[in-house]
Structure formats: C-alpha cells, structure tokens
Amino acid sequence: MTAQATSVVRAHVWLSLLYALSRAALWLAGLPFRFDLDWMWLADPGDLRDRLGETLYYFHAFPPGMDVLTGILLKLGGDRPEWLAVWLFRALGFALVNALFAVGRGAGLSTRTALGLALAFALSPPAIFFEHLYLYEWPVTTMLCVAAACFHRGVRTGSTGAWAAFFGLCAAIGLTRSTFHLAWFALMVGAALWAAGRPRRGRVLGAAAIPAALLAALYLKNLVVFGAFAASTFGPASFHLVTVDRLSREVRDGWIREGTLSPFAAVSAYAPPMAYARYFATPERPGWPPQVTRPEHVTVQAPNFNHWWLLEVNRARRADVRRYLQERWFEYPASVVAGLGEYLGPSTSWHPRAGLPGAPHAGHREVLGAWEAAYNRALHTFPLAPAGAYLLLPLVWGWTAWRAWTLARSQAAESRAVGWLLALCAVQVLYVTTASTMLTFRESSRYRFQVEPLIWVLTAACGSRLRTAPGGVSPSGPDLHP
After folding, report:
1. What's the pTM value of the predicted model, to 2 decimals?
2. What is the DSSP-derived secondary structure letter of residue 303?
3. Which of 94, 352, 394, 458 has the most crowded Cβ, counting Cβ within 10 A?
4. DSSP bridge partners of 426
C-alpha cells in the first residue's frame, strides 16, 4: 500500500471514530430520535407489517421506498422497531460521512480538507436534525452522496461493480423520492455513458439494465393499476401549490364558478380524503382492498392519502394546473422566485410548525437550539435573509460548470475523472433546485438538504482552487493540496 493510500485509510478510520464519538455525545445529551409513522407518504403501519406485498401493490400516492423499509422494520423490530430505525440511520450516517470524504477527495480536495469537510457536515445542525428524524431526507441524501463516490470510481477505473452500485443507488433513490423521476434516471445513464467513453459503454449499459427495469416496473404497475405513468400520483397536487394555490381567493373562486377550475381547487393539497366526501357517493370501490378505500389509517389514526378519491382529485388538479399555465403564465415566474427564496433558507426550519411544540424538530431544538440558531445566523442572514451565503451558490455552480468542462476534456485520466465528478455534482444540484422550485412550493429547504453535501464539496473545491495558483489537476491523483 502506498503512503497516499495509507493516509486515506487512516483518514477514514479517524472520521468514523470521530463520527461515532459525536453521536455518542448526542445520545448522552438526550437528543431524541423522532420515529413517527403518521407521515402522509406512509401506508398504514398495520398493513405494512401484516400485508406488505398487497399494500405495496396498491400503493400509488408516493414512491414506495420508505414503505418497504418501514414494513421491514415493523416485521423485524417486534415491539421496538424504532431501535432498528435508530441503528439503520446511524449506519447511513457512517456511509454518508465516508462517502462525502471520498467525493471531496475525488473533487480535488486534499485529504485534510476533505476530512474536515466531512466532519463539519456531520456536526452541522441540519445533518444532526435529519439523522434523528424518520424521514426520507437522510436516506436519500446518503444514497446520493454514495452514488457520487461510485460514479467517480466508475469513471476512474471502469469497474463494473462501481457502475452497478451507482445505478442500483439511483434506482433506490427513484423508488424513494418522486423528485428523482424516471427521466432523472435516464439522465444519469446518459451521463455515465458519456463519462465512461466509447470502449466501456457496453459495460455501463449492462450495469444499468436491472436497476432501470426495476424502476420502470413501478411506473408500469401504476399505469396498469391506477392509470398514471408515475412513481407518485400526488405530483399534480404538488404542482398545484406553486400554481393554482398562488391565485387570490377572489380569482380562484370566480374561476371555479365559471367552470374554469374544478371545485377541488378550493381545497388544500394537504387536505385529508374526507374533505372531498361531498364530491363522491361512497369511499368503496369494487375489487380494491381497504388500503385504497379507507379514508383513514386504523393503526395511527391519520388520513389515508392513498385513498382512490385522491386519484380522481389529482387528475382534476392536473387539468387545473394546465389551465392556470395557459391563463396566468406570467405570474408563474414570480412564484418560482418566491419558492427559490424558501429553498435557500434554513433547512432546519422547513416545517410549517417549526418552533412550535409537536413539530418534528422540537425535541432536537430543545437540546441543540443554541447551536442551530448560531449556525443559521452565520449562514442565512448576510447579505440577505433567509438565503444568506447561499446567494453565492450560482457563482459556485458557474465556476464548477466551467471547471468540469475544462477537466472532462483533459487527456489525463485522473483529470477527466475529477471533471466528470464535478459535472455530476453540479447536475444534481441544478436538478434538485429546479424541481424543488418549479414543481412545488413550501418545505423546499429540506429538499435542498438532499444535495447539501454536494453543495459543500463544490463550494470547498471552488474556494480551494481560488486559493491556489492556476494549473491543472495533478496526474498523480486528486489529492492536490497538502
């Protein structure tokens, strides 16, 4: 083993040890893990525990990834499934910080800088808060970061295993978050084919085949069973938030009276199924199980957003959105800009009841409120709240795009690998930003957290580059600066 490889292994060991010590300290400080099972994107926990296969087959409202995970935890965890969830999220944390270190080095940071970056991220309030909340943000963030590390390895070495891991993670992300559409998976395949080069494209396509088939199978199942070629039938409701929902009440109600909009336009996208009871004769539907016909979950007494009524409602909402974009297209950019302001705000304040008792992060804030306030004050107040320092993100992204384009065309293999990794990270940041501001509204600052590690890497790479003299990437590897 070379001295450089030994240094990297030692850094991974130190990073893992420091991460473990930090989590032990948080546990001793009394930081709680919030294991809630009444999220709108979850099926009834009793159904997930006792009828997992049938429940997943008839689940349409959201991608099923977290439902699969929840069903497994409930089946294996007995009376204390939350303990399995805690240890799983801890394991994801180890994977995330080590992958972030690898991505940092792959992007050209020194071992010390990449180590400090990964450790700083692990200690940031957003990372701590989401790691201690049973929500899809932490798993998706981890998978995106690990996928970036696999992508870099695939470009550098051509390893079939690295490409298989990359596409497997991409499929798992697509099965978990509707943001990452089948079109996004196709974009990842295209990026991999371009980055791998002509001699290795057959290997890349072979690695992508099974993950692509699994993801496509979900879309086809929903098309056949529910008439929607999508991973989530809630998409029109999300788009409604950034379009129809932004209309004034007077305009909206007038359009409803005229028949321009459906009567559902006056109902909140977050309203439970019973809010639509007056529009339907019965909640029953012949041939469909209770998972789709019960207005409420039995186990947790929460609204059932997988009810078939919402299929019809969201079809109408799609038409409402289309009409809005035809009639009020000139108002849409202002809504996107407003959403962008929320997107760049503090990730720990995403919830509508943030700061109030019962909010998802209330227990976390009781322990780490001072640290959270200091962190948000440092990053989200200057030069303009709530975006703060994130107003510089377009500059970082622009530099990254230029740097990636320059390095990806290099004759040196290591330089090309760095360039393609930077390009992938930039694409992920742009994609999530676009989808989170143009296709939905509210809670978007937590969507940014999914690419927060990649934003940190790009910012550090930009800053590191600006502090050094101009020049190319060292052909000896990405560990450029001591």
Report:
1. 0.95
2. B
3. 458
4. none
